[in-house]
Design brief:
homotetramer, alpha+beta, Gyrase A, domain 2, 3 domains, two-stranded antiparallel ribbon, 45% helix
Amino acid sequence: MPLTPEQQAEIEEQRAHPQPTLRAVAPGMEKHLYTAHQVLDHGLVRVIDYMGDDNAITQAARVSYGRGTKSVSNDEGLIRYLMRHWHSTPFEMCEVKFHVKLPVFVARQWIRHRTANVNEYSARYSILDREFYIPAPEQLAAQSTVNNQGRGAVLEGAEAARVLDLLREDAMRSYDNYEQMLSQDGQQGLARELARMNLPANIYTQWYWKVDLHNLFHFLRLRADAHAQFEIRAFAEVMCAITRDWVPYAYAAFEDYRLGGTQLSGKGVAILKRRLAGETVTAENSGLSKGEWREFAAIWGEN
Amino acid sequence: MPLTPEQQAEIEEQRAHPQPTLRAVAPGMEKHLYTAHQVLDHGLVRVIDYMGDDNAITQAARVSYGRGTKSVSNDEGLIRYLMRHWHSTPFEMCEVKFHVKLPVFVARQWIRHRTANVNEYSARYSILDREFYIPAPEQLAAQSTVNNQGRGAVLEGAEAARVLDLLREDAMRSYDNYEQMLSQDGQQGLARELARMNLPANIYTQWYWKVDLHNLFHFLRLRADAHAQFEIRAFAEVMCAITRDWVPYAYAAFEDYRLGGTQLSGKGVAILKRRLAGETVTAENSGLSKGEWREFAAIWGEN
Amino acid sequence: MPLTPEQQAEIEEQRAHPQPTLRAVAPGMEKHLYTAHQVLDHGLVRVIDYMGDDNAITQAARVSYGRGTKSVSNDEGLIRYLMRHWHSTPFEMCEVKFHVKLPVFVARQWIRHRTANVNEYSARYSILDREFYIPAPEQLAAQSTVNNQGRGAVLEGAEAARVLDLLREDAMRSYDNYEQMLSQDGQQGLARELARMNLPANIYTQWYWKVDLHNLFHFLRLRADAHAQFEIRAFAEVMCAITRDWVPYAYAAFEDYRLGGTQLSGKGVAILKRRLAGETVTAENSGLSKGEWREFAAIWGEN
Amino acid sequence: MPLTPEQQAEIEEQRAHPQPTLRAVAPGMEKHLYTAHQVLDHGLVRVIDYMGDDNAITQAARVSYGRGTKSVSNDEGLIRYLMRHWHSTPFEMCEVKFHVKLPVFVARQWIRHRTANVNEYSARYSILDREFYIPAPEQLAAQSTVNNQGRGAVLEGAEAARVLDLLREDAMRSYDNYEQMLSQDGQQGLARELARMNLPANIYTQWYWKVDLHNLFHFLRLRADAHAQFEIRAFAEVMCAITRDWVPYAYAAFEDYRLGGTQLSGKGVAILKRRLAGETVTAENSGLSKGEWREFAAIWGEN
């Protein structure tokens, strides 16, 4: 769904008037400000404000470590060092505020990340719009047969059509009835805080979400992961691209050490050392459980 | 809705085997352990575990204030002193874990309290039960005409009947369709993480919720308040009663200083002083805005 | 102590190059950026960065309350409403980052406010400077005889001189010995992480401290209060003045509802109502404890 | 330093009276309750209270994952699965409260872990005891020549003796002067909140520290690590032993996946895969920086 002309006009107005500031400015982030990145069918992510840049991270680290940081001479190296050694506080010195429009079932996963600030549209005060997430056909997947919380093959033919019809019809009917219960035309009209209970979890809500860079990375590591539900991952991936433009060194370190890295258990280290020494380690002699071996072998191969 | 025989049996089993412990024991809380307090039509609150009692609060305060606390000779007086002066850390030394079954729209308000630990039933992994909150007739209220987020008069006659019918029918239909989409009978069956999006916000979910006493009081102050939505207040009131049994001194102090107290602005203090000095202060000469005067007068009268 | 020429030059350099930004700009805060406000004898507070302004608060509130906020037509009224009703999340949408130089015993109080981000100078990595807080003569006070944690009369004559001598001599001697233990001149030199244990709590440390406006107000309410220790209050008062320039509406509301207001217990409300009805309420018939009556009477008079 | 007879008597009294409870009881933890574990020269760790056991973790997980967790049939396997996949909330369902006596410079590191509840002895209210940490001779180490924040060789002979003399003399003198400033014998006596500033960072303080198991593990991973300063590691190691007795399955999983494991970057994974394929990877062709290679080679060898 395209933005309304009013929304588009508001964004253009906001983008038209740069003002001078003495604060740190991240050029890569300025270009994102207020611009709506569309996500899913009616969702969006917009950067409303930000604080700091790559340099704000090293500046804070140099307060902490004083002369000790002189030995790492450049910002990029220092940022990689901080990320590698889990020094989280310098990354907390950057902050970002997003405007996000998202389905309620995605919002319910998202809000579990507690170290952030949120102002959500309140359906006690106001009436929600008739906007529902309906999956694209290629996202309409069967329950995974191997993963209790995952998706398997894409649904096909009549079943897919039936599901889409059901989702659309139930959304429209529940919204019609929501409006009818609220209506004050010839009746009192049900309180908004009650009427909203009739709306399904694919209705869109929106919020302002503000978070520091350390906690944003934590969110992105979990939600841009291949095991995250597709619908929240769609948001996380847009936010990854924005973050790369905002703090390129920090994002590159995050990509190498977190997104692209892996955690080995003590047992896993021992197995790799045996293999490096020429030994053949199999599921049987690995000492790992079946599930653990499957995950290990997915990265390191069967032997 | 009554508990199932299985649930009832599990509770009785848990309650049948006291074990010795050296920890502080709160007799008033032991009697609540595992017992299901019913809330709304299908909801419940159960105490799963707790840490500490009134004495744990003063014990921690005496670590902090050392000899300085000797002057307040008894526990009750010290607890009132701590509450009055916003010394929050001693109250954080008590902890409680609840099992709560609640409608999703209540859960969405509740989760905004971030300083707690939560494990919620996951509809990605598992299938939700066919249980929906349908308001009792006396709770079916119109939108308030004075308060954007409140309820007004109770709906009557045909309108009330119509609303209840709509809520019930939409709940049943959406659940039927949820089941149909999930079904693997002659079809692949939609992934659970997708099918759940069809369920309305009055479906019941459940979680374990663990919180310290300071943050529990903060939650109760906001959610047992007359302005809180009835449905969350119903839970808060049950939890108030439990907390009173658990830490009677702390609860009494909370009741006096928080639930039963009020916050005055600098302007409000000045008005009361003028009145105590015999002056007649009205909306016009109060210096308060209209809304502020209305709230002030609700407690202190019109002049 | 004046800033060094190097520090002064760095500040001037930072202040000389405004850059264009599309973000919200708070003119009252721009003028504070990087400028060192001196506090106590060697301490300082500098604004390093900020996010948002008064408008960012109402913008977030309007996302939350949607059409419901239209009735409060102006920003100032809405901000007062939010503050009065403890709606904290819109205030969390503003963020500020300070550079603070402060004595260690003040830092130890300050750090108890957990909802902030901190990067402190590390004496494991680096060597602390020879800078100690020595109270001004008018701050050299005796232990209060009525308040376990307060100050009484100012010390005079020989006693005051003796205290200042002791503080200065012990500071200098401990620092001399710190340097001697660290020295690698003709010896190995003790590890910095060990040598620092010899330094007293009036040595200065420094940190970057980043916090949202809601939590800043909470900090300021407790630390700009007359009961706070003078040394931390000195910092809080400078930060109050800065915050007033940053978000004038929010600060004015904070001043009226928090700093200038008071909390009444249920018992306190009842007493005031009796007085307003013409009754004479004394300590004896108030139902309050002695301590509580003393605090009540300090605001409302003896009868 | 041994406990005083009064402290010993209080502990014995507390341990003498088990009471019945319906809550989960962890036998391995009951034996630790109240018992003082000595740490360093005058420090201690005591368990004051706890909530939950291994079973509380899986119980919470089963609420979350419902039928989905049935496939992992036993508690130990489920706990390992949760730890491996960074499912932190079930571990938050256990809580522990410690009484800790520790030097101030250790307390300053410790308090940086913000997700815990703390009540510290207040030197504004009360007078600190004459107890200082003086390192054992084998802990008196030189500054590391390779690590900005570490220790090198143990000091020897005259230098070691000189350091110990300085630490002891400065501690005693500063405490003498602290007492003299406080004294009301023939003078007013300086306020406690001021006099404390003369005390060095090796004086002992004490606090109650309460934390959930997830955050405790995070603390232990950082502070029981070989790179942590010895003095805080001494506390962490005692707490590791206590935690092993409290929640043996969870602790074993923590030991394998966190303490004994390692994090590989994307580059690190690629290097190991090249080696497994028979290639010789050296510092030069690794693509790692010098510092990163040194850390990598410390685990995986030079080629």
